Structure to design on (796 residues):
């Protein structure tokens, strides 16, 4: 039943000093759909891909607001995310009650990390099966943190978790140097482009499957779902979304036939980054 | 490791027939792969330094620290499982605070090391928990002067002039042994610490890295603040803080240069050997 | 009212001699401790009363806690003995666990913690004095509410009311042993003279860094002459 003798629980080290249960929990994150976070000097944005279990079913929640200045995106077991975000909400409210101020982002992230670590050291507990991207603004500006079931937390300029998130990370690594100075809309667009790179070949970003949240200095967390995502997708469209690109490809084909000039145009329509930055790149 | 697979290594707090606790030994393995971390007890303070590999350029530099302040006069560096290290440090902070509450005094380094040693040891006693996957280097200063201790997953701890743990500990240790630590000053020490981190760094395997370095110091500024501090302030005048940026950058620059020169000499030597062989 | 020892009414100050529990012994007292050049001196009278009755005329109110930390007790004899015993236990444990003796501040802090958390149940006014490795001689006072005050000298107990002026006039920093002992003795003589609840002999303990505690005894029938005899402890 087990892969080896050392992976039954989270209180057993392997001879190499690894804790397999924690590593398996890390795998659970990759089962979830992707979420991307990124920050500028003024804003932090979260974008996430929602999945629906069946055609007629609703789409799962991917972004959970915590407070006016704080929100999380999740990948993995969403019930675990709910436990953690409830805890963060309590912390946040306690901070407002006790100190009359919104809780600093690093504080709330550290508190869930400490909670998660305990689960990796005691028999009868299991590690959380969820990864989180925590976006928030406090006295020290906008922040983006990644949380892992091991209790590891890291602060990033841009981060991606979930299925095929390596593609999004590749996008972020290529472009993050420009993030600090981009506008609110541009920041979301970079997020959407990174998220788009995680899509399977036949999929595209739609108003149904895309979730966006953004928070900025002096600006409360705002979440965009359903029709309200359209504006961003349209902006992305002008840059060439997959759907737009496909449509333009179709018209080009129809109009041009076998004309050489049209081939050139076609190449141009494939977008700035070419196939390497697109959905073709699906390695994890 | 011959007893692997005999079943005695599957649960914490269980002795093997030859008297070993394998789970504790495995916890130590987690540390052996951790980043190189060292502590130097100098004449006028203590230095903590660690090698921080840059795993992604998306990480915010300066965030995600590996060395923590536990009390105003104490710092702890951990190597191994980072979340375990965080837990360990939280506990150390609680100990330091309760000491202040109970005894109206800043906790002596030996006493904190002793308490944390006991805490680590408690996690080797029960099958319901696992040992800490960290080695912690405790640096601080009290009425007896600078103090440096290293606590292992077993709960074992010793006081040190110079301590090293993590992947590059062997190389670091042999470098530390060359130093005359009872005569070394902090300003000399940070250069040595930077050099040791560079020497211990395995640039064949590892990617880029940066050095995180802190010290426990008592300069005229802090000593004066301790004396003139308001009534009820409990502080012995020593402070654990990051080594000032300019000093660290200079130390790192010199260390890099020194190590590169040494490598070149090695290469030359090897080149000559080759020629000998050819002949 | 449990802890009321006196209140002002239309017919003058009324002292409630019955504020203690039935049979409880009260150290209606004069105690003090001072810093001097080489350490600290603790001093006390020796009268213990139960109501108007003098239960003990040669009481020892100077109690050793560690090698070099002592305290002066005032208030309920039972309460202050119990508190001193508890603090002695904690400080002995401290020394064993940490390999060095506790500081005077630490001792005072533990006294305070106990006096404060149990303030409703205790009648205890304690002076803690001692020498330690790093700060030398120190004097702390913990009055009835459980607050903690460090000073160069402190006086406490019912008899202390009469000697504030004396002490203020004659105090000097860094007195030598002879001057210090004279200061304490003369102050306590005044306190005993004016306070009905203080009396008997004058006891003193001198604590010097690195030295054994020295006890001194002054007898009233010899007019507290200096020194009738010395006792080493």
């Amino acid at each position: 039943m087990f892969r080896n003798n050392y992976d039954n629980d989270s209180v057993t080290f392997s001879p190499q000093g690894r804790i397999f249960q924690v590593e398996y929990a890390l795998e659970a994150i990759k089962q979830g759909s992707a979420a991307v976070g990124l920050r500028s000097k003024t804003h932090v944005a979260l974008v996430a891909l929602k999945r629906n279990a069946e055609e007629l079913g609703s789409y799962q929640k991917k972004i959970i607001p915590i407070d006016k200045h704080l929100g999380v995106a999740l990948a993995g077991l969403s019930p675990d995310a709910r436990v953690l975000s409830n805890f963060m909400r309590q912390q946040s409210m306690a901070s407002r009650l006790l100190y009359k101020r919104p809780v600093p982002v690093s504080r709330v992230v550290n508190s869930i990390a400490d909670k998660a670590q305990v689960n990796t050291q005691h028999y009868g507990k299991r590690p959380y099966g969820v990864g989180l991207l925590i976006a928030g603004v406090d006295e020290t500006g906008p922040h983006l943190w990644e949380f892992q079931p091991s209790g590891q937390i890291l602060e990033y300029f841009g981060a991606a978790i979930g299925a095929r998130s390596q593609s999004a990370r590749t996008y972020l690594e290529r472009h993050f140097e420009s993030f600090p100075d981009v506008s609110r809309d541009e920041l979301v667009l970079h997020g959407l482009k990174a998220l788009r790179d995680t899509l399977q070949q036949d999929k595209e970003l739609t108003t149904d499957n895309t979730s966006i949240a953004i928070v900025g200095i002096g600006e409360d967390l705002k979440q965009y779902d359903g029709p309200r995502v359209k504006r961003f997708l349209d902006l992305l469209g002008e840059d060439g979304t997959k759907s737009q690109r496909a449509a333009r490809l179709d018209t080009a084909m129809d109009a041009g036939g076998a004309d050489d000039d049209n081939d050139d145009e076609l190449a141009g329509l494939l977008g700035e980054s070419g196939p390497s930055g697109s959905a073709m790149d699906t390695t994890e | 490791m011959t007893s692997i697979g005999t079943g005695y290594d599957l649960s914490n707090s269980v002795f093997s027939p030859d008297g070993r606790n394998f789970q504790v030994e495995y916890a130590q393995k987690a540390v052996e792969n951790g980043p190189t971390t060292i502590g130097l007890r100098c004449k006028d303070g203590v230095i903590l330094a660690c090698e921080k590999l840059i795993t992604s350029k998306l990480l915010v530099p300066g965030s995600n620290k590996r060395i923590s302040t536990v009390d105003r006069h104490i710092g702890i560096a951990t190597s191994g499982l980072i979340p375990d290290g965080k837990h360990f440090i939280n506990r150390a902070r609680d100990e330091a605070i309760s000491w202040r509450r109970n005894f109206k005094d800043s906790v002596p380094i030996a006493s904190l090391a002793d308490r944390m040693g006991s805490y680590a040891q408690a996690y080797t006693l029960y099958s319901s928990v696992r040992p800490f996957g960290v080695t912690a280097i405790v640096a601080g200063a009290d009425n007896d002067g600078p103090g440096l201790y290293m606590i292992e997953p077993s709960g074992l701890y010793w006081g040190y002039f110079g301590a090293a743990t993590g992947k590059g500990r062997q190389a670091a240790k042999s470098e530390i042994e060359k130093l005359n630590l009872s005569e070394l000053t902090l300003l000399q020490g940070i250069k040595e610490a930077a050099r040791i981190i560079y020497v211990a760094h395995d640039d064949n395997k590892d990617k880029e890295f940066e050095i995180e370095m802190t010290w426990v110091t008592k300069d005229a500024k802090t000593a004066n603040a301790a004396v003139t501090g308001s009534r009820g302030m409990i502080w012995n005048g020593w402070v654990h803080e990051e080594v000032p940026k300019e000093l660290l950058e200079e130390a790192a620059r010199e260390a890099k240069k020194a190590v590169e020169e040494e490598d070149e000499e090695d290469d030359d030597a090897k080149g000559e050997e080759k020629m000998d062989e050819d002949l | 009212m449990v802890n009321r020892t006196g209140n002002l009414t239309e017919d003058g100050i009324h002292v409630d001699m019955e504020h203690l529990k039935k049979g409880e012994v009260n150290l209606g007292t004069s105690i003090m401790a001072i810093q001097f050049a080489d350490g600290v001196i603790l001093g006390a009278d020796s009268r213990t009363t139960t109501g108007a009755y003098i239960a003990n005329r040669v009481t020892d109110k100077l109690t050793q806690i560690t090698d070099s930390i002592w305290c002066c007790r005032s208030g309920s004899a039972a309460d202050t003995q119990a508190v001193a015993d508890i603090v002695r236990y904690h400080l002995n444990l401290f020394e064993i666990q940490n390999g060095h003796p506790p500081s005077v501040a630490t001792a005072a802090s533990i006294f305070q913690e106990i006096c404060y958390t149990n303030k409703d149940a205790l009648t205890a006014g304690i002076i803690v004095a001692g020498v330690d490795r790093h700060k030398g001689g120190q004097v702390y006072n913990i009055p009835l509410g459980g607050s903690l005050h460090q000073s160069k000298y402190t006086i406490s107990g019912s008899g202390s009311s009469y000697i504030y002026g004396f002490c203020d006039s004659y105090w000097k920093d860094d007195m030598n042993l002879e001057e210090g002992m004279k200061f304490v003795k003369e102050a306590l003589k005044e306190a005993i003279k004016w306070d009905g609840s203080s009396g008997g002999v004058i006891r003193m303990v001198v604590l010097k860094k690195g030295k054994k505690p020295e006890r001194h005894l002054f007898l009233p029938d010899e007019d507290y002459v200096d020194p009738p005899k010395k006792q080493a402890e």
Remarks:
- Chain C touches chain B through 15 residues (CB under 8 Å).
- The longest strand of chain C covers residues 124-132.
- The CA atoms of residues 185 and 202 of chain C lie 7 Å apart.
